[in-house]
Write a structure and sequence with these properties.
about 180 residues; mainly alpha; about 75% helix
């Protein structure tokens, strides 16, 4: 539950979506979101809490976090297998069963989700990786002047925008912070 809490609530979706609704921006930007940033932020938060030491002394919580990372990896393969390689639901189920050791009936909903939402699994992970990469770029460029909270303000300050726009905003943040 700890990992799900970080994904869904704090600092995940609840914080993200609440901040978006409170922003002075066009209505569309407050309530319409792009999956890469919205879900990427939630996955990023799961790892962020680990990086900040929230799992120290909590081996079962950390094991759950790692298990969810494995599940996300399986989703990437399922999504790609179904849509790029033409896997059947049965072939996707066999992959998950082999990878995770789960009985086949326990993840039918997961497979159906990726059958009807092509690219969703990929968008989660791409979003997370882009946010992590942007954080690393900002940290490298700003060195001691890098402030994690300020970086997060940039990521969360404009609602669920496309990742390309986020990249431009972080570039501007780096330029502005470097000028001071």
């Amino acid at each position: 539950m700890t990992v799900v809490f970080h994904h869904e609530a704090i600092p995940g979706h609840h914080v993200q979506l609440t901040l978006a609704m409170e922003q002075e921006m066009p209505l569309l930007m407050r309530f319409v979101s792009f999956n890469g940033l919205v879900e990427g932020w939630a996955l990023y938060c799961e790892r962020l809490m680990y990086d900040l030491g929230m799992y120290e002394g909590k081996p079962l919580d950390n094991l759950a976090r790692l298990d969810l990372e494995l599940m996300r990896a399986a989703r990437l393969v399922i999504d790609t297998g179904i849509h790029a390689y033409g896997w059947t639901r049965s072939e996707a189920a066999a992959h998950v069963e082999d990878l995770r050791g789960w009985p086949r009936g326990s993840f039918v909903g997961t497979i159906d989700r990726y059958v009807i939402l092509p690219g969703q699994g990929s968008s989660y992970m791409v979003g997370k990786l882009v946010i992590e990469s942007l954080r690393d770029q900002a940290h490298e460029a700003l060195a001691d002047a890098f402030d994690l909270a300020s970086f997060h303000d940039v990521v969360l300050g404009t609602g669920g925008i496309p990742l390309e726009i986020l990249e431009a905003l972080v570039g501007q943040y780096i330029a502005d912070a470097s000028a001071h």
